[in-house]
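Deviation from plan, reported transparently: magnesium ion complex.
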Amino acid sequence: MAKVKVEFQDIALAFGKTQVLRDIDLVIEPGEFFALLGPSGSGKSTLLRVLAGFARPQAGRVLVDGKDISAVPPWQRDIGMVFQNYALWPHMSVRANVAFGLEERRLPRDMIKRKVAAALELVGLQEFAARRPSQLSGGQQQRVALARTIAIEPKVLLLDEPLSNLDAKLRVHMRTELLALQRKLGVTTIFVTHDQEEALSISDRVAVLDAGVIQQVGTPLELFDRPANRFIANFVGTVNMFAGTLRPGADGMVFESAALGALSLRGAPAAAAGEVEIAFRPHVVTLAEAGAALDGGLIWLKGSIAGREFLGEFIRYVVKVGTTEIITDQAHYTEAHTFAPGEAVNLGIQPAQIRLLAA
Ligand SMILES: Nc1ncnc2c1ncn2[C@@H]1O[C@H](COP(=O)(O)OP(=O)(O)OP(=O)(O)O)[C@@H](O)[C@H]1O
Ligand SMILES: [Mg+2]
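Because the crystal trials were delayed, the predicted structure below was used instead.
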Protein backbone atom coordinates (compact mmCIF):
# COMPACT_ATOMS: atom_id res chain seq x y z
CA MET A 1 0.00 0.00 0.00
CA ALA A 2 1.21 3.50 -0.83
CA LYS A 3 1.99 5.41 2.33
CA VAL A 4 0.43 8.86 2.52
CA LYS A 5 1.25 12.11 4.22
CA VAL A 6 -1.34 13.98 6.29
CA GLU A 7 -1.23 17.75 6.73
CA PHE A 8 -3.28 20.04 8.92
CA GLN A 9 -2.88 23.66 7.84
CA ASP A 10 -4.02 26.51 10.11
CA ILE A 11 -7.03 24.60 11.39
CA ALA A 12 -9.35 26.57 13.65
CA LEU A 13 -12.61 25.22 15.01
CA ALA A 14 -15.13 26.56 17.50
CA PHE A 15 -18.35 25.09 18.83
CA GLY A 16 -20.43 28.23 19.35
CA LYS A 17 -18.29 30.54 21.46
CA THR A 18 -15.95 27.79 22.60
CA GLN A 19 -12.72 27.76 20.61
CA VAL A 20 -11.70 24.10 20.53
CA LEU A 21 -8.82 24.10 18.01
CA ARG A 22 -6.51 27.04 17.30
CA ASP A 23 -3.98 27.41 14.47
CA ILE A 24 -3.26 23.71 14.18
CA ASP A 25 -0.31 23.17 11.85
CA LEU A 26 0.87 19.61 11.73
CA VAL A 27 2.52 17.31 9.22
CA ILE A 28 2.32 13.57 9.74
CA GLU A 29 4.81 11.70 7.59
CA PRO A 30 3.90 8.73 5.39
CA GLY A 31 3.77 5.53 7.43
CA GLU A 32 4.29 7.32 10.71
CA PHE A 33 2.79 6.13 14.00
CA PHE A 34 1.85 9.50 15.41
CA ALA A 35 0.28 10.19 18.81
CA LEU A 36 -1.95 13.05 19.87
CA LEU A 37 -1.51 13.50 23.59
CA GLY A 38 -3.30 15.94 25.85
CA PRO A 39 -5.57 16.33 28.84
CA SER A 40 -9.30 15.68 28.66
CA GLY A 41 -11.07 18.32 26.59
CA SER A 42 -7.91 19.53 24.85
CA GLY A 43 -9.35 18.83 21.39
CA LYS A 44 -7.76 15.48 20.45
CA SER A 45 -10.94 13.75 19.30
CA THR A 46 -12.10 16.88 17.52
CA LEU A 47 -8.88 16.98 15.51
CA LEU A 48 -9.36 13.34 14.47
CA ARG A 49 -12.96 14.13 13.53
CA VAL A 50 -11.77 16.99 11.35
CA LEU A 51 -9.51 14.58 9.48
CA ALA A 52 -12.22 11.93 9.19
CA GLY A 53 -14.71 14.53 7.98
CA PHE A 54 -17.13 14.41 10.92
CA ALA A 55 -16.30 17.92 12.12
CA ARG A 56 -15.98 20.99 9.96
CA PRO A 57 -13.36 23.61 10.88
CA GLN A 58 -14.11 27.30 10.37
CA ALA A 59 -10.66 27.85 8.93
CA GLY A 60 -7.79 25.84 7.52
CA ARG A 61 -7.25 22.88 5.24
CA VAL A 62 -6.60 19.17 5.57
CA LEU A 63 -4.38 17.51 2.99
CA VAL A 64 -3.98 13.79 2.46
CA ASP A 65 -1.33 12.72 0.02
CA GLY A 66 -0.97 16.37 -0.99
CA LYS A 67 -4.65 16.75 -1.93
CA ASP A 68 -7.02 19.08 -0.12
CA ILE A 69 -9.84 16.87 1.18
CA SER A 70 -11.71 19.62 3.06
CA ALA A 71 -14.70 19.32 0.71
CA VAL A 72 -14.68 15.52 0.42
CA PRO A 73 -17.46 13.77 2.41
CA PRO A 74 -16.34 11.34 5.16
CA TRP A 75 -17.25 8.15 3.30
CA GLN A 76 -15.07 9.11 0.35
CA ARG A 77 -11.98 10.00 2.35
CA ASP A 78 -10.43 6.52 2.66
CA ILE A 79 -9.84 7.11 6.33
CA GLY A 80 -10.55 4.39 8.88
CA MET A 81 -11.44 5.34 12.42
CA VAL A 82 -11.55 3.10 15.45
CA PHE A 83 -13.76 4.72 18.07
CA GLN A 84 -13.05 4.63 21.76
CA ASN A 85 -16.11 2.49 22.54
CA TYR A 86 -15.45 0.18 19.52
CA ALA A 87 -19.04 0.69 18.31
CA LEU A 88 -19.45 -2.96 17.29
CA TRP A 89 -22.85 -4.28 16.21
CA PRO A 90 -23.94 -6.45 19.15
CA HIS A 91 -26.39 -8.57 17.14
CA MET A 92 -23.85 -9.50 14.47
CA SER A 93 -21.07 -12.05 14.53
CA VAL A 94 -17.43 -11.03 14.48
CA ARG A 95 -17.30 -11.99 10.81
CA ALA A 96 -20.34 -9.86 9.95
CA ASN A 97 -18.98 -6.91 11.89
CA VAL A 98 -15.73 -7.01 9.94
CA ALA A 99 -17.56 -7.48 6.63
CA PHE A 100 -19.89 -4.55 7.23
CA GLY A 101 -17.79 -1.78 5.68
CA LEU A 102 -16.94 -3.96 2.70
CA GLU A 103 -20.58 -4.80 2.04
CA GLU A 104 -21.42 -1.12 2.17
CA ARG A 105 -18.86 -0.67 -0.58
CA ARG A 106 -20.70 -3.36 -2.57
CA LEU A 107 -17.63 -5.46 -3.22
CA PRO A 108 -18.08 -8.94 -4.74
CA ARG A 109 -18.91 -11.68 -2.22
CA ASP A 110 -15.77 -13.76 -2.62
CA MET A 111 -13.60 -10.67 -2.31
CA ILE A 112 -15.37 -9.71 0.92
CA LYS A 113 -14.82 -13.22 2.23
CA ARG A 114 -11.13 -13.06 1.45
CA LYS A 115 -10.64 -9.60 2.97
CA VAL A 116 -12.51 -10.50 6.15
CA ALA A 117 -10.44 -13.65 6.59
CA ALA A 118 -7.23 -11.70 6.05
CA ALA A 119 -8.22 -8.97 8.52
CA LEU A 120 -9.20 -11.51 11.18
CA GLU A 121 -5.95 -13.37 10.67
CA LEU A 122 -4.00 -10.14 11.06
CA VAL A 123 -5.49 -9.55 14.50
CA GLY A 124 -5.39 -13.25 15.44
CA LEU A 125 -9.14 -13.78 15.68
CA GLN A 126 -9.82 -16.38 12.95
CA GLU A 127 -11.27 -18.83 15.46
CA PHE A 128 -13.66 -16.24 16.85
CA ALA A 129 -15.37 -15.34 13.57
CA ALA A 130 -18.73 -16.86 14.52
CA ARG A 131 -18.97 -15.30 17.99
CA ARG A 132 -20.94 -12.23 19.02
CA PRO A 133 -19.08 -9.27 20.58
CA SER A 134 -20.68 -10.08 23.96
CA GLN A 135 -18.87 -13.43 23.88
CA LEU A 136 -15.47 -11.77 23.62
CA SER A 137 -13.13 -10.13 26.12
CA GLY A 138 -12.51 -6.39 25.96
CA GLY A 139 -9.18 -6.92 24.24
CA GLN A 140 -10.74 -9.22 21.63
CA GLN A 141 -13.52 -6.72 20.95
CA GLN A 142 -10.91 -4.07 20.44
CA ARG A 143 -9.22 -6.28 17.87
CA VAL A 144 -12.53 -6.78 16.07
CA ALA A 145 -12.94 -3.01 15.84
CA LEU A 146 -9.43 -2.80 14.47
CA ALA A 147 -10.01 -5.63 11.98
CA ARG A 148 -13.19 -3.94 10.76
CA THR A 149 -11.31 -0.74 10.08
CA ILE A 150 -8.29 -2.43 8.53
CA ALA A 151 -10.49 -4.53 6.25
CA ILE A 152 -11.46 -1.49 4.19
CA GLU A 153 -7.74 -0.78 3.68
CA PRO A 154 -7.84 2.88 4.62
CA LYS A 155 -5.07 5.24 3.58
CA VAL A 156 -5.00 6.65 7.09
CA LEU A 157 -5.83 4.88 10.33
CA LEU A 158 -7.26 6.91 13.22
CA LEU A 159 -7.38 5.36 16.68
CA ASP A 160 -9.24 7.28 19.37
CA GLU A 161 -8.12 5.94 22.75
CA PRO A 162 -8.44 2.39 21.46
CA LEU A 163 -6.93 0.85 24.60
CA SER A 164 -8.74 2.83 27.25
CA ASN A 165 -11.22 0.09 28.17
CA LEU A 166 -8.59 -2.54 28.82
CA ASP A 167 -6.95 -3.48 32.10
CA ALA A 168 -3.39 -2.31 32.74
CA LYS A 169 -1.66 -5.53 31.70
CA LEU A 170 -3.65 -6.08 28.51
CA ARG A 171 -3.17 -2.42 27.60
CA VAL A 172 0.59 -2.78 27.66
CA HIS A 173 0.38 -5.99 25.64
CA MET A 174 -2.05 -4.54 23.07
CA ARG A 175 -0.05 -1.41 22.48
CA THR A 176 2.94 -3.41 21.26
CA GLU A 177 0.64 -5.55 19.13
CA LEU A 178 -0.91 -2.42 17.70
CA LEU A 179 2.46 -1.04 16.75
CA ALA A 180 3.54 -4.35 15.19
CA LEU A 181 0.34 -4.41 13.16
CA GLN A 182 0.79 -0.81 12.04
CA ARG A 183 4.35 -1.57 10.93
CA LYS A 184 3.14 -4.60 8.98
CA LEU A 185 0.45 -2.55 7.21
CA GLY A 186 2.60 0.55 6.80
CA VAL A 187 -0.50 2.71 7.13
CA THR A 188 -0.08 6.28 8.38
CA THR A 189 -1.63 6.14 11.84
CA ILE A 190 -2.79 8.77 14.31
CA PHE A 191 -3.33 7.49 17.79
CA VAL A 192 -5.13 9.54 20.45
CA THR A 193 -4.40 9.05 24.11
CA HIS A 194 -4.29 11.01 27.34
CA ASP A 195 -1.84 8.51 28.79
CA GLN A 196 1.65 9.91 28.40
CA GLU A 197 3.37 6.59 29.01
CA GLU A 198 1.35 5.03 26.22
CA ALA A 199 2.19 7.86 23.83
CA LEU A 200 5.90 7.81 24.64
CA SER A 201 6.26 4.05 24.49
CA ILE A 202 5.05 3.32 20.97
CA SER A 203 4.96 6.49 18.88
CA ASP A 204 7.42 7.73 16.29
CA ARG A 205 6.42 11.28 17.20
CA VAL A 206 3.95 12.93 19.52
CA ALA A 207 2.03 16.21 19.39
CA VAL A 208 0.92 17.52 22.77
CA LEU A 209 -2.29 19.52 22.77
CA ASP A 210 -3.51 21.80 25.51
CA ALA A 211 -6.70 23.83 25.22
CA GLY A 212 -6.75 23.36 21.45
CA VAL A 213 -3.18 24.55 20.93
CA ILE A 214 -0.23 22.38 19.97
CA GLN A 215 2.36 22.89 22.68
CA GLN A 216 5.12 20.75 21.21
CA VAL A 217 5.73 18.18 18.49
CA GLY A 218 8.64 15.80 18.75
CA THR A 219 9.93 12.32 19.30
CA PRO A 220 9.22 10.82 22.72
CA LEU A 221 12.84 11.46 23.74
CA GLU A 222 12.70 15.09 22.63
CA LEU A 223 9.54 15.73 24.64
CA PHE A 224 10.95 14.07 27.72
CA ASP A 225 14.47 15.51 27.57
CA ARG A 226 13.78 18.91 26.08
CA PRO A 227 10.28 20.04 27.07
CA ALA A 228 9.45 23.30 25.32
CA ASN A 229 7.63 24.81 28.27
CA ARG A 230 6.37 24.17 31.77
CA PHE A 231 3.15 22.56 30.57
CA ILE A 232 5.07 19.88 28.64
CA ALA A 233 7.58 19.38 31.47
CA ASN A 234 4.69 18.74 33.84
CA PHE A 235 2.52 16.72 31.51
CA VAL A 236 5.18 14.38 30.13
CA GLY A 237 6.60 12.49 33.10
CA THR A 238 7.13 13.69 36.66
CA VAL A 239 9.27 16.71 37.27
CA ASN A 240 10.63 18.98 39.99
CA MET A 241 10.34 22.63 39.00
CA PHE A 242 11.52 25.80 40.68
CA ALA A 243 11.22 29.44 39.61
CA GLY A 244 14.08 31.83 40.27
CA THR A 245 16.77 33.99 38.75
CA LEU A 246 19.80 32.92 36.75
CA ARG A 247 22.75 35.31 37.05
CA PRO A 248 26.49 35.29 36.45
CA GLY A 249 28.58 34.46 39.54
CA ALA A 250 32.30 34.33 40.27
CA ASP A 251 32.46 30.76 38.96
CA GLY A 252 29.89 30.49 36.15
CA MET A 253 26.14 30.93 36.37
CA VAL A 254 24.20 30.78 39.61
CA PHE A 255 20.52 29.97 40.01
CA GLU A 256 18.90 31.67 42.94
CA SER A 257 15.45 30.91 44.27
CA ALA A 258 13.55 31.45 47.48
CA ALA A 259 12.92 27.70 47.71
CA LEU A 260 16.46 26.35 47.22
CA GLY A 261 18.83 29.28 47.85
CA ALA A 262 21.81 29.65 45.49
CA LEU A 263 22.78 26.70 43.27
CA SER A 264 25.87 26.71 41.09
CA LEU A 265 24.85 25.95 37.50
CA ARG A 266 28.27 26.35 35.92
CA GLY A 267 27.28 24.89 32.58
CA ALA A 268 24.25 27.14 32.05
CA PRO A 269 24.60 29.61 29.15
CA ALA A 270 25.12 33.24 30.14
CA ALA A 271 22.53 34.21 27.51
CA ALA A 272 19.81 32.51 29.59
CA ALA A 273 20.31 34.98 32.48
CA GLY A 274 17.09 36.38 33.94
CA GLU A 275 13.88 34.95 35.29
CA VAL A 276 13.86 31.22 34.58
CA GLU A 277 12.54 27.96 35.88
CA ILE A 278 14.72 24.93 36.45
CA ALA A 279 13.31 21.47 35.94
CA PHE A 280 14.77 18.07 36.79
CA ARG A 281 13.37 14.56 36.87
CA PRO A 282 13.06 12.44 40.03
CA HIS A 283 15.55 9.82 38.83
CA VAL A 284 18.45 12.28 38.41
CA VAL A 285 18.40 12.99 42.14
CA THR A 286 20.56 10.77 44.37
CA LEU A 287 19.89 10.25 48.05
CA ALA A 288 22.74 9.75 50.52
CA GLU A 289 22.61 9.10 54.22
CA ALA A 290 23.56 12.00 56.48
CA GLY A 291 27.28 11.72 57.11
CA ALA A 292 28.03 9.70 53.94
CA ALA A 293 30.83 10.89 51.62
CA LEU A 294 29.40 13.10 48.87
CA ASP A 295 30.31 13.02 45.17
CA GLY A 296 31.75 16.44 44.28
CA GLY A 297 30.19 16.39 40.82
CA LEU A 298 26.64 16.79 42.13
CA ILE A 299 24.77 19.72 43.60
CA TRP A 300 23.99 18.77 47.20
CA LEU A 301 21.11 19.92 49.36
CA LYS A 302 20.13 18.88 52.87
CA GLY A 303 16.66 17.58 53.58
CA SER A 304 14.55 15.07 55.41
CA ILE A 305 12.26 12.31 54.15
CA ALA A 306 8.66 13.55 54.16
CA GLY A 307 7.07 10.53 52.51
CA ARG A 308 7.72 7.48 50.38
CA GLU A 309 5.91 5.24 47.98
CA PHE A 310 7.11 1.77 47.05
CA LEU A 311 6.65 1.36 43.29
CA GLY A 312 8.43 -1.97 42.80
CA GLU A 313 11.44 -1.17 40.64
CA PHE A 314 12.03 2.01 42.59
CA ILE A 315 10.98 3.90 45.67
CA ARG A 316 9.63 7.39 45.18
CA TYR A 317 10.61 9.66 48.07
CA VAL A 318 9.29 13.11 48.83
CA VAL A 319 12.11 15.02 50.51
CA LYS A 320 11.51 18.19 52.48
CA VAL A 321 14.18 20.77 51.64
CA GLY A 322 13.74 24.03 53.56
CA THR A 323 10.17 25.07 52.93
CA THR A 324 9.80 23.10 49.71
CA GLU A 325 9.72 19.46 48.56
CA ILE A 326 11.68 17.50 45.98
CA ILE A 327 10.58 14.20 44.48
CA THR A 328 13.25 11.58 43.91
CA ASP A 329 13.14 8.02 42.59
CA GLN A 330 15.69 5.56 43.93
CA ALA A 331 16.20 2.25 42.15
CA HIS A 332 15.21 -0.55 44.47
CA TYR A 333 17.30 -3.66 45.07
CA THR A 334 16.83 -6.42 47.59
CA GLU A 335 18.75 -5.49 50.75
CA ALA A 336 19.31 -1.92 49.52
CA HIS A 337 19.15 0.79 52.17
CA THR A 338 15.72 2.36 52.37
CA PHE A 339 15.22 5.76 53.91
CA ALA A 340 12.70 6.16 56.72
CA PRO A 341 10.22 9.02 57.11
CA GLY A 342 11.83 11.78 59.14
CA GLU A 343 15.38 10.62 58.32
CA ALA A 344 17.90 13.37 57.55
CA VAL A 345 19.40 12.94 54.06
CA ASN A 346 21.66 14.58 51.52
CA LEU A 347 20.12 15.04 48.15
CA GLY A 348 22.41 15.21 45.10
CA ILE A 349 21.26 16.60 41.73
CA GLN A 350 23.19 15.94 38.52
CA PRO A 351 23.81 19.46 37.16
CA ALA A 352 23.88 18.33 33.51
CA GLN A 353 20.35 16.96 33.93
CA ILE A 354 18.85 20.27 35.03
CA ARG A 355 16.81 21.91 32.25
CA LEU A 356 16.21 25.61 32.01
CA LEU A 357 12.72 26.67 30.98
CA ALA A 358 11.81 30.20 30.05
CA ALA A 359 9.57 31.48 32.83
N1 LIG B 1 -20.33 18.76 19.40
C1 LIG B 1 -19.82 19.57 20.33
N2 LIG B 1 -20.46 20.70 20.72
C2 LIG B 1 -19.93 21.52 21.64
N3 LIG B 1 -18.75 21.33 22.24
C3 LIG B 1 -18.06 20.23 21.90
C4 LIG B 1 -18.55 19.29 20.95
N4 LIG B 1 -17.63 18.29 20.82
C5 LIG B 1 -16.65 18.59 21.67
N5 LIG B 1 -16.89 19.76 22.32
C6 LIG B 1 -15.99 20.42 23.28
O1 LIG B 1 -14.74 20.59 22.65
C7 LIG B 1 -13.67 20.39 23.56
C8 LIG B 1 -12.72 19.36 23.02
O2 LIG B 1 -13.36 18.11 22.97
P1 LIG B 1 -12.64 16.79 22.48
O3 LIG B 1 -13.65 15.71 22.49
O4 LIG B 1 -11.94 17.07 21.20
O5 LIG B 1 -11.56 16.58 23.64
P2 LIG B 1 -10.54 15.39 23.88
O6 LIG B 1 -9.18 16.00 23.91
O7 LIG B 1 -10.79 14.31 22.92
O8 LIG B 1 -10.93 14.94 25.37
P3 LIG B 1 -11.01 13.46 26.03
O9 LIG B 1 -9.59 13.10 26.42
O10 LIG B 1 -11.85 13.68 27.25
O11 LIG B 1 -11.61 12.52 25.05
C9 LIG B 1 -14.33 20.04 24.89
O12 LIG B 1 -14.35 21.17 25.70
C10 LIG B 1 -15.70 19.58 24.49
O13 LIG B 1 -16.62 19.84 25.52
MG1 LIG C 1 -11.54 12.37 23.11
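The two ends are 46 Å apart (CA to CA). We consider this an acceptable substitute for the interim report.
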